[in-house]
C-alpha cells in the first residue's frame, strides 16, 4: 500500500511535531507556512547597529520540559540551559529549534493557505505567495495555486486563522475555536552601547506595563559584545495599546524599563517593536486536539492545552496520532 499523502498547515512547533510524527508513521508530508521559515512564535530577529550584530528572541523566551518526549526533543535539537534551572533556549537563537525540527520535511515556506477544498480522501490546499497578502497591500488578482489530493489535512494554526479554513467542512468546530482566548503581546527589541543596571531577567508584579524583560544577549551563543533586551508588555497593557503605532510603543516600554531600573536608560542604539496579536493562551480548548479521522481533518496548537511551547508539541503529537492511529 502506498504512503498516505497528508498536508500539514502551519510550521510552528505544533505543526512540526505533527509532521514529524506523521512521517514516522509512514505518511508522505507536505508542510505549508506563510512565514519565510519554520518556527512561528519560536522566532529570532537579527539586526545591526554601528557595526555590531544584534539578535533577539522576540517570541518565546525560554522553554521548559515536563515530559520526557519534549526533553528528548530539546536535547536532540541542541537546546542549551539558560537562567534558572530547567530553562532552555535554542542556540544560537530560538529559531534554531524549529529549523532543526524541519530538517528533512517538505516545507513550502512563504505560502499563505487561503482555503481547503475537495472532499474526504481527496482534499486540496489553496495557497498564495505570502508577500501578496501583507497588510496594507490591495487584494491580489492572482488565483491561489491548488495542491492535492491529500488523504488528510492537519491544521496547526492559531484559532482565528484556523476557523475560516475549517468552517466549510466542519461547521461545528468554529464555535469551539471561538471559546479559546489568546492574549496579545507588544514586544520591544532594544540594544544599548552600555550594560543596563538590571538582572538578566525580570518578571515584575502584574499591573504595570511590563510583563517580562530579559537581557537576550545573556543567552548562550548570542553575538559577543552586544547588550540586547527583549521587553514584553503585559496582556492588559498590550490590549489597551493594541492599535498604537510601533514607534510609540518602543519608547513607552523602554521608559517603563527605566523605571524598573531606577534610572534613565541610555538612548538605545537600536529599538523596534513587534505586535503579537495572538501570543499566550488565556483560555485553552481543554483537549489535546480536535480531529475527525473519518473526515480526514484535524486542528492543533498550543491553544488546545496551555500557553507553553511544550503544549504545542503535545497537541501536534496528539493530532498526528488521531489522524493516523
Ligand atoms: C511573546 C511570546 C512569548 C512567549 N514566551 C514563551 C515562553 O517563554 N515559554 C514558552 O514555553 N512559550 C512561550 N510562548 C508561547 C510559544 O511560543 C507557543 O506556545 C508556541 O510557539 C506555539 O506553537 P504553535 O505551533 O501552536 O503556533 P505558532 O508558533 O503560532 O505556529 C503557527 C504557524 O502557522 C503559520 N500560519 C498562520 N496562518 C497561516 C496560513 N493561513 N497559511 C500558512 N501558514 C499560516 C504561522 O506563520 C506560524 O508559523 C510565547 C509566545 C509569544 C508570542
TrEMBL record:
Alphabetized UniProt keyword annotations: Signal
An MF annotation (GO) of this entry: oxidoreductase activity
Signal peptide residues on this chain, from the entry's feature table: 1-23
Domain Amine oxidase: 89-324
Cited PROSITE patterns: PROKAR_LIPOPROTEIN (PS51257)
Source species, domain of life: Bacteria
Matches recorded under InterPro entries: Amino_oxidase, FAD/NAD-bd_sf
Protein name: NAD(P)-binding protein
